[in-house]
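Lab manual, section 2.4: Encoding a predicted structure.

Procedure: take the sequence of the chain (318 residues), apply the prediction step described in section 2.3, and record the output as structure tokens. A sample record is shown.
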Amino acid sequence: MKIVCPIDNKNEVEVLISGGVDEFYCGYISKDWLNEYSAVCSPNRREWFDCNFNSLDDLKEVVDLCKKHKKPINLCLNSANISDNQYPLLIEELKQIKKLDFDSIIVSDIGLMVVLNKLGFEKIHLSCGTAILNSQSIDFFKNMNIKRIILPRQVTLKEFSSLREKNKDIELESFVLNDACKNLDGFCTFMHGFNKNYCGETVACNLPYEIGVYSVEKDIRKIRTASRKIKERIFSKKTTCGVCALYDFINVGMDAVKIAGRGKPMDKKIKDVIFVKKLMGEVEKSKNKSDFIKKARELYTETYNRLCSPEACYYEVD
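Recorded output:
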């Protein structure tokens, strides 16, 4: 199972490889795109500059360096919607990008998938922004030259197992660390924010609001417990994590796990990669799932100097 990590400049490549990275992904916003549409209309769901390469020369350098080390690198063009008037510029840029020989393009917009196929891109990865939640949707996209599905964090461990069993002819990738959101990416149109205020107070989904739980359950204590758990997960500002699911992912045959975090400091990325790599090695050593989860929580505290918190989990583990 591969560890997939974000990269924002060429200086990160060799350091992250030494930590255990198997595959990279990055973003790109050209100066022409910025002049025409500004970063507000980022083609890759990251609106601030530190998360993106800004020139083809810089992109070529990082791609060549990854190729030198035999590590795949994928380009994010995963904006949920590319407008009609943006396509002429994007197509011209894609013709130049194709020459750089990225291993895949990560996309959400169906129209862009059609364009990529017409331009001869051989590998397309489907972003979590497409919100793939069942096998029927996977079957639909297989006809569009999709080689890998990046599944949303809202997919449960039981559903992961079912999707893997029914779709052995396509790669599946899941998130394992950082940047979980209260919303489902594929149904969200909020911007992430500017000036690296990523998911901060100014982002619309983090404005104050009230939530309630409506249920046919008659036991008021169960309703209150459910309400408390939901509020904890929705309003938590803690660093989110899904590493306890590594045990299940390895055993069901997940192809890759993704560390989120374009724009995060290199030290944070290295720490995350080493943490995930160590835990992957603990799966075979563990007596059972409970033993692994105990080790994962201990290593989490040791690595990040804070306790593991249930409200910060991506997935509900047994």
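Check your result against the sample. Residues 2-180+240-283 form a domain with the TIM Barrel fold (CATH 3.20.20.380).
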